[in-house]
Amino acid sequence: MRLKSCLSPISANVLLPAHGRLYNVFQMDARTAQYYDENAEAVFARHQSVPSPVAKYVRLAFPPGGEILDIGAGSGRDMQTLMREQYAAYGVEPCEPLRHIAIEHDPRLVERLMGGSLPGLSSQIDRKFDGIICSAVFMHIPAEQHFDCAFDIRNLLKPYGRLILSVPRTRPDVDEEGRDGHGRLFVPIVPESLELLFERLGFQRIGKWENEDALGRRGITWTTLLFELGSGGPTRPIDQIEGVLNRDRKVATYKLALFRALCDIALMSYRLAEWRQDGSVGVPVHAVAERWIQYYWPLLEDDGDFIPQIRGESRDCGPHIGFRPQLERLIGAFRKSGGLDGFAIASDNAALDSAQNSILKALLNRLAHVIVKGPVAHAGATSEAGLLFSYDRRRRQIVVGTEIWRELSLSGHWIHDALILRWAELTSEISRKVISPSEVIERLLRVPVRERNVLDARRIYSDLSSRECVWSGTTLGNRFDVDHVLPFSLWRNNDLWNLLPVNPQVNRDKGDSLPTNALLKRRRDVILDYWCALHGANPKRFEHEVQRLSGTATLHLPQTFDLVLEAVEITALQRGCLRWEP
């Protein structure tokens, strides 16, 4: 396909003005444009005398056989590289004399190299490309036009298209006015500022290289950036999430509860999620529903205060949240047996009686219905990017896009904190300020304490004929502590696999630090032995808790160890935790 065929007659006239320069489209500094016009032969010879500095990145950057546009094609050197590598290469160059020389030396460029430059190029070319090269261009464009140029490039790329961008990092030959010895203007650019500019427009940097000047000019260095455009719009996943939290219409707190559950699963139970063939992620709706019980229980528990969770809700009238009667029945069933803590312990130990099981089953079914028909069906409906979720009825999965799931996995602990605040503020607003945000936050932060969980682990270890400190290997007598491998302050987790016996002084030394990778591997056999003891003493609970971690019904302790090892490393990296060993 010839590039000319992509241009309307009007736009072709704009791209190829009689005067040879594109001042009406490209606002290049006049002295810089004059230099290239008057020295086109020398510029061509200089560029052709050395290999292209970006040629070595072409095969890495672009899909085989893709259609690639070279913006600021100059001598046509990069276009020739692209054609040698079997790409469909097209180029635009604002300097008419340089363009003519390039075509004269390589007639293949006659229908491929056209007049044009940034900004404004996307309004003249009515097609999109698999990739773009923009080498040694941005430093000649005034800084105030950089956004327009970047926006132009985005409009010229297909979804997931790639961009190679190179700019000088250092130019010691530039004077105080920003001009070199030839009078060319060089706008000072910090490459990292361009990274942020393109990221704000929906690009992700996937490569970065620092190189010496190809022409061997002393002190001049170049930075080459490789970007990939997202699936379409400029909206980043975090912006989509923020849009739902702040701008989506919210009649109830459901959307906040959905995001909170997905954050918790992405951070601490990510093995429950299934990567689907199309690249999306399926999250079991029952896993979300189970977490909603924990979130809403402290808000609905009747201790004198009525805390509305939907607009117009009151104790005696008005619309109620769609599962209030079912959850209130479960709360009533455990009112005299430990409340939320008692329910969590009974559930973990598969110790609910038939009446409690029947109430729980009805509640989970109702929760699943509310989740699917409410936030899954409406989150993001008012945003430019559209709906964020869908539902797979056959697999009973909430389907989450790859970009959203990645954001929840990488930034979930920050998003979680923002969710708690938004939830508290919305609840206060719904109650017409009768309930303060601080009152709601206190309830939202409550998790099942499961004190008996720690006591159960202690009892099991006390019954062993001999014990050693899991971290130091020293013999333990009757006095020992129960340590959290993953600190409770980070994971809020009292599962049996996370509780191991330790010397009290060693426990104080460890504090809230995470064990090093080397320490965990060194003490692997000891940890597995303790897990065997825990499983032997309480198999139902141990298997249930490991299943929440692994996402599989089969118990395999060596595999569980690998998962814990992974969880520790991810937590350490994402939360910036101190590592420790005795």
Strand and helix layout:
Layout: H1 9-15, H2 30-38, H3 40-48, H4 58-61, E1 67-71, H5 77-84, E2 88-92, H6 96-105, E3 113-114, E4 129-135, H7 146-156, E5 157-170, H8 191-200, E6 203-212, E7 221-229, H9 237-246, H10 254-268, E8 274-275, E9 281-284, H11 285-300, H12 324-333, H13 339-348, H14 354-373, H15 375-378, E10 389-392, E11 397-400, H16 402-430, H17 437-444, H18 451-462, E12 481-484, H19 488-491, E13 499-502, H20 504-510, E14 514-515, H21 517-522, H22 524-537, H23 539-550, H24 557-575, E15 579-580
Parallel strand pairs: 1-2, 1-4, 2-3, 4-5, 14-15
Antiparallel strand pairs: 5-7, 6-7, 8-9, 9-11, 10-11, 12-13
Helix pairs in contact: 3-6, 9-16, 10-11, 10-16, 11-12, 11-14, 12-14, 16-17, 22-23
Describe this structure in words.
The protein is an alpha/beta fold and 582 residues long. The protein folds into three domains: 3-229, 3-Layer(aba) Sandwich (Rossmann fold), CATH 3.40.50; 237-444, no CATH class; 451-580, no CATH class. The protein is built from 24 helices and 15 strands. The chain has helices at 9-15, 30-38, 40-48, 58-61, 77-84, 96-105, 146-156, 191-200, 237-246, 254-268, 285-300, 324-333, 339-348, 354-373, 375-378, 402-430, 437-444, 451-462, 488-491, 504-510, 517-522, 524-537, 539-550, 557-575; strands at residues 67-71, 88-92, 113-114, 129-135, 157-170, 203-212, 221-229, 274-275, 281-284, 389-392, 397-400, 481-484, 499-502, 514-515, 579-580. The strands form four sheets. Strands 3-2-1-4-5-7-6 form a seven-stranded mixed sheet, with helices on both faces. A four-stranded antiparallel sheet has the order 8-9-11-10. A two-stranded antiparallel sheet has the order 12-13. 41% of the residues are buried. Mean pLDDT is 86; it is low at 1-27.
